[in-house]
Amino acid sequence: MSGLRLPRTLRLDPSDTFVFADAAEPGEWAVTGSFLFLDADPDTLTGKARAAFRSGFVGVRSLGFSTLVVVSEASAAERAAAVEDLARHILERFGAPDLAAARGAAEEEIAVSASLCHLPVGSVVALHRTAEGGEIRENFRTLHQRAPGADPLHARAFHFIETDEDAAEEEADLVGLLRDAAPGR
């Protein structure tokens, strides 16, 4: 690889599909997407639009939102494709005067996103966006996996142990338990 890094949308669970009106597909190249809110009054946003403003990265192919991105290696061809995807949206949906202007804006957005990727590949990044004094502010944080045993209060609720024993397994008769618990018994 070329050493080029870009953020990709990351979906750890289906929550983005509930939180945002349009969720990005997992694995899309991403930008911060604050340009989507330049004409909005953040104080009037509610529900899913407010969630998108506060914490949504934007997938360049779908313009859907993602809560998290992951730092990923990208080839020059993948970067160029991301620029073209975003430029097409900027031209068609946001009224750029021509494709050259749209490409310029897309290049800037991709460059800003690439600047977030000075972290190791695989790092997960979250965004918190606010409006202060009429300006949009973006704050980023990196989420780190805890080392095993580092925080015993936040250990896994379940873990599986493999055994070689041939002992009989416990069985439960759930239907019988329900029948016995029925009223009048």
Automatic annotation (TrEMBL):
Which Pfam family would be a valid example here? DUF6505
Name of the molecule in the record: Uncharacterized protein
